[in-house]
UniProtKB/TrEMBL annotation, chain A:
It comes from Mesotoga infera. CDD domains: TRX_Fd_family. GO terms for molecular function: iron-sulfur cluster binding; metal ion binding. Transmembrane segments: none annotated. InterPro entries: Thioredoxin-like_sf. This is NADP-reducing hydrogenase, subunit B. Keywords: Iron, Iron-sulfur, Metal-binding.
Amino acid sequence: MAKIKSLEELMKIKENAMKGLKMRDSGKKGKIIVAMGTCGIAAGAKDTLRAIVDSLDEKGIEDVAVVQSGCFGLCDVEPTIEVHLEGADPIIYGHVTPAQAKRIIDQHIVEGKVVGDLIVKKGEL
Amino acid sequence: MPAVENTVLICAGGACISAGEKSVKEVFEDTLKKYSLETVVRVVETGCMGACDLGPILVIYPEGVFYQKVNAENAAQIVEEHILKGRVVERLLYKGDTGELKTKPQEELPFFTEQVKIATRNLGVIDPLSIDEYIARDGYFALHKALFEIGPEKVLETLKKSELKGRGGAGFPTWMKWDFTRKAQGDTKYIICNADEGDPGAFMDRAVLEGDPHTIVEAMTIAAYTVGAQKGFVYVRAEYPLAIERLTFAMEKAREYGLLGNNILGTDFSFDLEIRIGAGAFVCGEETALINSIEGKRGIPRVKPPFPANKGLWGKPTLLNNVETYANIPPIIINGGEWFSQYGVEGSKGTKVFALAGNVKNTGLVEVPMGITVRKLIYDIGGGIPGGKRLKSIQTGGPSGGCIPLEHLDTPITYDNLKKLGTIVGSGGMVVMDEDSCMVDVAKYFLEFTVEESCGQCTPCRDGTRRMLEILERITEGEGTMEDLDLLKELGENIMATSLCGLGQTAPQPVLSTMRYFWHEYEAHVLEKKCPAKRCKPLMRVVIDKDKCVGCTACARVCPVNAISGAVRKPHEIDPEICTRCGSCLAVCRFNAISKVSP
C-alpha cells in the first residue's frame, strides 16, 4: 500500500470501501437475477451470467449482487434477467445475450438508464 | 467472482465474546462452507453493538435481521434456514414485552432509536480490522482537514465551540486542556490517551478501542498536530487484551497508509504512537499516576500543580484525554463545533455514552444526548426494571460517585445537576438498583473497592477509608451505634477535603450520598438492628412457614451446610446457628414456604 498523500487518494479509498458497506444496508443494494431454469440455460443463460459477472468485475462494481433463480415463466424470451435497483421498479429484460448483458450493465447499472429495446416487463412479476 | 449476497455482522465486543461469539462464528463459517456459500456470504466481526444482554448478536444484511442469544447450535440453523432458504428463524428474534416478534429491533426499540451515536458511531457498523471501512465512514478526513484546511488555531476554535468536556470523569473543558498544552513552553510534548478504564460497570472505552480503534489513532494525531507533539502513548489496562490487539493492528495499518509515523499525509508533520499496558491498578486512571506508570515508576499520583499540560510525562508538556473524549474529536472537526453543541443542554453539550448495568432490562452501552432525564434513560432506553420489582436508586460515577434516589428521577443528566445531587457523571457507569438492594451494603461494596485500590501514599485515603469501612462493617453486622454514623460522616468529609488525588477526594461519596438519601436505612441497621432489604446476612434469617411447608424435603436436600431438619411430610425447620443465609433453599421451594426475615 502506497502512502496516502492527498484528499483524492483518501476519497478513492472511501468510495471503494463505501460499496462494501452500502451493500449491508437494506434497500440500498442492487441485484441482478439471472433466470437459470432449463429453458434459460438452453438459451445460453450460463454465458450471460458469466458476462454479467465479468462486466461488473471489470468496472469494479461491487454493490450489485448477482443471483441465480429458477425459470421466470418467460421461456420464449430467454435468457432473461431481472435488474432490481434501489428505489426503482424491477425491470425484466429478455433475449439477453452476453453482448446485450454488457449493454445493460453499461446503461442501466452504470448510467441508470433503462435499456428500452430489451424490456419484457416493468414492475414485480 | 460471485458477488456477495449477504453480509453477516457478528458482534465481537467483549460481552458477546464471553457469551460464546467465537464458537458461533466458527460454526457459522463451517456451515457456510458445507453448503458452498462461503464466497457469497461475508462474515464480519464488528465492535460492541451495545445490547450486551442479548449477546451473542448476529445481524444479517441486506435485510438487517437481528438475531439474539445465538449459540453454536442455532448458528448452523440460521445458515440453513435464513441464508439457504430465505426463511427468518423466528425463535431467535428479539421479542418485545408482549411477546411480539421484532425482526429489526434496531429500527423500532427505544434502546436503539433514542440513541445519538457520535463517539460510538462506528461500533457494530464497521470491521474494526479494516482501515478502508473506517475511511469509508469519513475516517481520517478530519485529520486531512486539520492539516490542510484549517490548522491548529481553528481546531481549537472548533473544539471551544463544541463545548466538549472530558468524558473520563472530571468533565474539564477539552479545548482548554489542548490550549494549555499548545501554549506550554518546550519543543518536546506528549499526547496520552487514558484507556485505564477502572470503574466497576463502565466499559465504553473498551468498546470503542475494540470496535473503532482508528478513531483514537486519528484523534490523537490531530491532537499532536494541534499542540505540537511528536510522540503519543495509549495507556491500556492489561485486562483489555482484545483492545490492545486491535489497536496495535490499527496503528500498523495507519503507518502503512502514511497516516501515522513520519511525514503524515506527505507533510513534514510526524507523530507516532506506542501502547503502554497498565497492570490494572485503579489509581493509574488518575492522570499523574498514569504518567508515573508510563515512566516506569510506581503508579502513585503527583502533587498538582504543576499540571500535566505544563509538566507531565518526563517533565514535558503533556495532553491527556480519555478514550471517549478522543472518539468525539474527528466528527467534531468534520462537522463543526456547532453541530456537536446542538445536542445536549446548557453547560453539558453533546452526547455521553452510559453503561447500563444492574437491575435493568436492557443492560449494555447507550449513547444519548446529555440532558436526557434519568427516567427516560432507565425506563425508555433501559426498558425498566425486570421481574416486576420497584426501582430504588441509581448509582452513577462508580466508586467516585453517589446515588440518585427515586424522587430525582426526572432530573436531566448534566454535569451540574448530578453534582448538586451529590454524585457525578463520571465515566458513565450507571448501576440500577431495585428494592432488594441494601444501600448500606452498596456503600460498603464501593468502599471495599477503594480501600483495596488506594495507593497508600497519603494518610487520609490510606487510613481514613479503611476506618470508614470498619464502621460500615460494624453497622451491617448490627454492632453500629449512632455515634458511628456521626463519625462516618465526619471522616468522609475530612477525607474528601484532605486527600491528595481524585481517588481519595471522591472515595467517601458513595457513603455520604447514601447517608443523605437513605438515612432511614442506616438508622434501621443501627437502632433496630434490621436490614430493610434483607441483604445484610448478620441482620437477617431465613425461615420456613410451618403452615405452608408440606415436608417435600427439597430444601433440606440442597442445603449445603445441613441446617434444615424435619421428617418427610412434616414441616421443616432451619437452624439459624448453622444457616449461612445462602438462599439455596429459597430457590428450590415450590410452596413459597421459605422467606427472608429481618427482625
